[in-house]
Every structure is written in C-alpha cells, then in structure tokens.
Specification:
The protein has about 140 residues and is α/β, with parallel strands linked by helices. It is about 40% helix and about 20% strand. The chain binds flavin mononucleotide. The site of flavin mononucleotide has 11 residues, from β1.
Length: about 140
C-alpha cells in the first residue's frame, strides 16, 4: 500500500482504509501463549510504501515512531510487513506557481527524473517479491 506522508504520518485516507481492513481480520481472542489471534490463517505479506517531500538526509523516520503503529498491526494480523521510503518527491507540478523558499525547484525536477524512477522500480520489485508464492 502506498501513501504520501502528511504532517509526519500516513494520510488520513490510508489510515481509514487500514482501520477497516485490519478490523475485518482482527479478533478478540488470544492463543495459549497470550498472543492475539487473527482470522488470517496463512501469512499474507504486506508492504507500506511512503512518499515524502523531505530528503533522505533528514532521516525523518529514524525510529519509525509514527509509522510503526500501523505496521505493527499489519504484521500481527497479516504477517511480515516491509517498508519502502521514497524521499524528496516533487510536491508541486510547477514550483514557480507557489510561494516557496524551502524547496529548490531545479533540485526537485532532477530528483523526479533520477531518483523517482529508481524508487518506482524498487516498489515494483517489492510487489513482485511479496506476491511470489513460498511453495
Ligand atoms: C497536507 C500535506 C502535508 C504534508 N506533510 C509532509 C510532511 O510532513 N513531510 C514530508 O516530507 N512531506 C509532506 N508532504 C508532501 C507529500 O508527502 C509529498 O508531496 C508526497 O510525496 C506526494 O503526495 P501527493 O501525492 O499528495 O502530492 C505533505 C503534503 C501535503 C499535501
């Protein structure tokens, strides 16, 4: 599942979708070891793909506090959940149309041409990898 980062977290749309998805598969049962039981019998591998304005150097999600909560639930209910971060994305199609002195328009154009295709490729490969059958 892909989501932009809005104010340091996943978008409200992604949050709403995950709440209903997780709740449909969740139970209020615990097993003999005290672990919460899921309705999902076989592991379903999932992944969260995050896109954001900030460059990688800002290492915004060091420790993953904000994002770890939903990924934790995805892991418990569905199985392993990978993450992929696409940094330094282009927020505005035309930077000149906005009042902005935070982002360098030329750098953003360059990042869109050079980095974003690599991130898309990584996302594609990630999707391929987790959808491959284990047997
Ligand atoms: C309401 C709003 C809040 C945002 N907050 C952040 C943020 O906290 N950190 C960040 O790196 N980018 C932030 N962005 C930029 C988006 O994450 C970035 O544009 C994203 O890669 C693409 O989102 P879009 O498809 O909505 O344009 C924000 C964008 C919007 C519209």
């Amino acid at each position: 599942m892909g989501t932009p980062i809005y104010y340091g977290s996943i978008s409200s749309y992604a949050q709403a979708f995950l709440e209903r998805l997780l709740f449909a598969a969740d139970t209020y049962l615990i097993d003999d070891d005290g672990n919460r039981m899921s309705k999902i019998k076989n592991e379903v591998k999932t992944a969260m793909i995050y896109t954001m304005n900030v460059p990688k150097e800002m290492d915004y999600f060091n420790g993953e506090d904000q994002l770890a909560i939903m990924r934790g639930y995805l892991t418990n209910i569905f199985g392993e959940c990978e993450s992929l971060y696409a940094y330094d994305t282009k927020q505005f199609r035309h930077y000149s149309a906005y009042v902005n002195n935070m982002f360098d328009a030329e750098h953003k154009e360059e990042s869109e041409k050079t980095q974003f295709p690599k991130d898309l490729q990584k996302a594609y490969e990630l999707g391929q990898r987790i959808s491959e059958s284990d047997d």
